[in-house]
């Protein structure tokens, strides 16, 4: 599982840096971060034998009768938590969850992504991903109360979040998570952070860490950060774009093609990958957009995708191909625009990368580029072009997901069945709730 060298390095660091608490991290099926702390004395044994914990208390794990689970720390992910004191310090390490008989646990989202990663690896590819995460700051935990009126890339004295963004970047970099950009996004008090690409499993670990760091630093200033996809109607929503590419084991970007007849310098391999994403998008949308509110983000025109299309300049496309910079082959990548930050990053990456790989296996041709905003096309035009619509509600997303053989295969029965059951509950709760909007509109009438 892990090399002696990595483990030795971690154990030495723990001693040299006076670490008194080692937090073991993993997520539940929905992507909530779970953590428990062990003392450094227990760490060596944890690497060798795992540390037992009660899986029945974790959403989507196991039933009461078979509750003993093992967490095996992954030494590659060991890092200090820089917001904790340096004396008697605290470190964290991500864990893989195993069953008592030492099998990788089917309900562990990280394990699910590892499987897709291994599949890609066997095909000769390293999936690389860089995420761009948007979120809002507010001084209330319950609603968006913007602290500024700034817009996209604005840098004005109104931009109170300046310091918070700076601290977030520095904190992430201390944890070896390089930040490519941080900026004020389009909505009031809306911000964004783009992390440098890395292989898929580290990328998902980094997203989980970034979400925590963003919330943690906001809390230290008496503020709250929210990853809700659409906090206010009529205002921009928050996305979690995933920039994806496949590299060879030798470090070549396999998405880049030298010739101009290749669309936007996209290799045949990249074109099949994009075609796979477009074909399976309606099926994986439950995973990339898992909440009732996720679908409110889609109900707007312009920058948010509604259809499974691709384009170069068109920001309403599901997949956009950023302009190629001469000489920068390494940065040839696709921009997947539908995911939002409520997604479990492990599952979102597993599902979307698997869709791309399926496109390669099926040698799917890249459909025609959608140059104009797809929402301007009539139903007839859409049908004639074979363009698939993304689900419009959580209910529709569940239906598409439930019928998907690919999603069941990629996520495994455990996660697949849990998601269907859990999301049906959520959808039913929402459908049976009576809202203020309805009372305002119907109560006094008729
Ligand atoms: N940078 C952008 O294109 C904005 C994206 C937009 N906030 C969304 O929800 O998708």
TrEMBL record:
Keywords: ATP-binding, Ligase, Nucleotide-binding
The keyword Nucleotide-binding belongs to this UniProt entry's keyword annotation: yes
Highest taxon, organism lineage: Bacteria
Catalytic EC class: ligase
Gene3D superfamilies per the UniProt record, alphabetical: Glutamine synthetase, N-terminal domain, Glutamine synthetase/guanido kinase, catalytic domain
InterPro entries, alphabetized: Gln_synt_N, Gln_synt_N_sf, Gln_synth/guanido_kin_cat_dom, Gln_synth_cat_dom
EC number annotated for this UniProt entry: 6.3.1.-
GS catalytic domain span: 109-446
Boundaries of every GS beta-grasp domain copy: 17-102
Entry's Gene Ontology molecular function annotations: ligase activity
Matches recorded under PANTHER family: GAMMA-GLUTAMYLPUTRESCINE SYNTHETASE (PTHR43785), TYPE-1 GLUTAMINE SYNTHETASE 2 (PTHR43785:SF12)
Family to which the UniProt record says this protein belongs: Belongs to the glutamine synthetase family.
The protein's name: Glutamine synthetase family protein
Source organism: Paratractidigestivibacter faecalis
């Amino acid at each position: 599982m892990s090399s002696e060298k990595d483990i030795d390095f971690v154990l030495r660091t723990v001693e040299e840096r006076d670490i008194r608490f080692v937090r073991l991290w993993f997520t539940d099926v929905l992507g909530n971060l779970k953590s428990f702390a062990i003392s450094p004395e227990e760490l060596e044994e944890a690497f060798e034998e795992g540390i037992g914990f009660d899986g029945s208390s974790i959403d989507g794990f196991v039933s009461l009768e078979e509750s003993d689970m093992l967490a095996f720390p992954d030494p590659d992910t060991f890092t200090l938590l820089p917001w904790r004191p340096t004396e008697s310090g605290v470190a964290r390490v991500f864990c893989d969850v195993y069953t008592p008989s030492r099998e990788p646990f089917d309900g562990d989202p990280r394990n699910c992504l590892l499987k897709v990663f291994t599949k890609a690896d066997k095909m000769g590819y390293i999936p690389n991903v860089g995420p761009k995460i948007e979120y809002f700051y507010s001084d209330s935990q319950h609603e968006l109360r913007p602290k500024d009126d700034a817009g996209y890339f604005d840098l004005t004295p109104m931009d109170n979040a300046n310091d918070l963004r700076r601290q977030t970047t520095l904190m992430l970099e201390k944890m070896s998570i390089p930040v490519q950009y941080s900026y004020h996004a389009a909505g009031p008090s809306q911000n964004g952070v783009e992390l440098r690409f890395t292989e898929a499993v580290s990328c998902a670990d980094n997203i989980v860490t970034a979400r925590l760091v963003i919330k943690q630093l906001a809390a230290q200033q008496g503020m709250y950060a929210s990853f809700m996809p659409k906090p206010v109607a009529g205002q921009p929503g928050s996305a979690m774009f995933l920039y994806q590419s496949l590299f060879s084991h030798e470090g070549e970007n396999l998405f880049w093609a030298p010739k101009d007849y290749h669309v936007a310098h996209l290799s045949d391999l990249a074109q099949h990958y994009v075609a796979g994403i477009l074909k399976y998008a309606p099926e994986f949308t439950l995973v990339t957009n898992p909440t009732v509110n996720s679908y409110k983000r889609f109900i707007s025109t312009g920058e948010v995708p509604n259809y499974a299309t691709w384009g170069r300049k068109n920001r309403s496309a599901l997949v956009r191909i950023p302009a190629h910079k001469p000489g920068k082959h390494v940065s040839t990548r696709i921009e997947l625009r539908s995911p939002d930050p409520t997604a479990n990053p492990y599952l979102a990456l597993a599902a979307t990368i698997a869709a791309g790989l399926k496109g390669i296996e099926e040698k799917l041709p890249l459909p025609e580029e959608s140059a104009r905003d797809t929402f301007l096309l009539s139903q007839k035009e859409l049908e004639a072009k074979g363009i698939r619509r993304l689900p419009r509600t959580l209910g529709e997303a569940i239906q598409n997901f439930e019928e998907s053989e690919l999603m069941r295969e990629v996520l495994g029965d455990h996660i697949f069945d849990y998601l269907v059951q859990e999301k049906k509950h959520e959808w039913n709760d929402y459908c049976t709730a009576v809202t203020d909007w309805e009372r305002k509109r119907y109560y006094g009438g008729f």
